[in-house]
Amino acid sequence: MALQLGDIAPDFTAESTEGTIKFHEFLGDGWGLLFSHPADFTPVCTTELGEAARLKGEFDKRNTKIIGVSVDSVSSHEEWKDDIAETQGYAINYPIIGDPDRRVADLYGMIHPKSLENLTVRSVFFIGPDKKIKATLTYPASTGRNFAELLRVLDSLQLTAGYSVSTPVNWTDGDDVIIGTAISDEEAKKRFPKGFKTVKPYLRITPQPDK
Ligand code: BEZ
Asked: What digits encode the pLDDT tens for the residues 191-210?
């Protein structure tokens, strides 16, 4: 069965551009983002991996380790890294797993043969400090991901892990949030001292509590 939200992200040992990775050890006590790309030396992937390098500092700020994977070899990744730096202006500053035997790809269900035969699609796994899968995204080879969206999702996951709130449509860090329906008005008054607006009994809006 495919991995589901709440499952433990499977552990593995694999070779990468930064040496042998023991995945859970690599994640440590923080958050993780494991993302696959279809193939080295391809156009969309080149832009995506360059963007991930550009945003590495933003992931660091969120205590989140990022790591790429494809079914290419580590030596292929090493060669390709030069092209990424040359064309995107950012040198790869995070590990990329070489997975020619598809062990990691199969473990995470990253190969979707009806979309792309024998190669990983564009999968993303957001992993919490408890090693559980908190969110996933899956895009086809033809659609490059929006890495600002990955940061936005991470902001929501990290906020909602600490407070009984959820984030509304198009929310970005600093916007108002929604108080969980399990929280009574009395409790909400205590937990959200900045106050809240009741639009409907099930829709109560409060300023982001950690700002
Ligand atoms: C790309 O990154 O552009 C790509 C990768 C695999 C198949 C098709 C396109």
From this structure: 999 999 999 999 999 999 99
Does some domain include residue 1? no
* Beta strand pairing call for 177-179 and 165-166: antiparallel
> In whole angstroms, what is the distance from residue 54 CA to residue 89 CA?
8
Radius of gyration for the alpha carbons in the chain, expressed in angstroms and rounded: 19
Q: Which of 105, 120, 147 is the last residue of a domain?
A: 147
- DSSP 8-state class, residue 193: T
Tell me how far apart the alpha carbons of residues 85 and 36 are, in angstroms, rounded to a whole number: 19
Prediction pTM value:
0.97
Kind of pairing, strands 177-179 and 197-200? unpaired
For a mutational test of ligand 1's pocket, the pick from 35, 37, 42, i.e. the residue with the most ligand atoms closer than 8 A to its C-beta, is 42
For the domain that residue 17 is a member of, what is the CATH number? 3.40.30.10
